[in-house]
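Lab meeting, item 3. Inverse folding demo.
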């Protein structure tokens, strides 16, 4: 329950600051084979300039080699312990955040906008076609 609330908190902050804040949460997840692992989840809310629509993109990765399941469960006992765990990921996590925000010459945001426009265009086209039928 604690980890779920921390994830929801990260999403609330991210949604309140579209395009300027990457929500970060560290969660327990389960692989298809049933094995538990530690999951880093980065979520970014953006606004597509062409149509002024918001969309969210999430990126997940297994960080079990960096953070043990035991360490995560121990950190889930308090806000300060969880914050310390996030802080312990340090520069590598900050670099992933900056990359998602398009800092440093790699324009990930532009690529995400292009992909989102492709999806939105397909949705609009399908809606128009179904309305015509």
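The presenter then showed the designed sequence:
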């Amino acid at each position: 329950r604690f980890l779920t609330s921390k994830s929801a908190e990260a999403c609330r902050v991210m949604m309140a600051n579209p395009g300027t804040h990457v929500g970060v949460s560290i969660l327990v997840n389960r692989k298809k084979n049933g094995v538990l692992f530690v999951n880093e989840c980065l979520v970014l809310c953006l606004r597509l300039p062409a149509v002024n629509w918001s969309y969210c993109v999430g990126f997940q990765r297994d960080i079990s080699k960096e953070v043990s399941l035991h360490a995560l469960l121990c950190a889930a006992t308090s806000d300060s312990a969880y914050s310390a765990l996030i802080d312990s990921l340090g520069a590598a996590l900050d670099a992933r955040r900056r990359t998602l925000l398009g800092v440093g010459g790699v324009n990930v945001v532009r690529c995400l906008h292009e992909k989102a426009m492709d999806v939105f265009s397909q949705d609009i086209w399908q809606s128009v076609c179904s309305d015509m039928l």
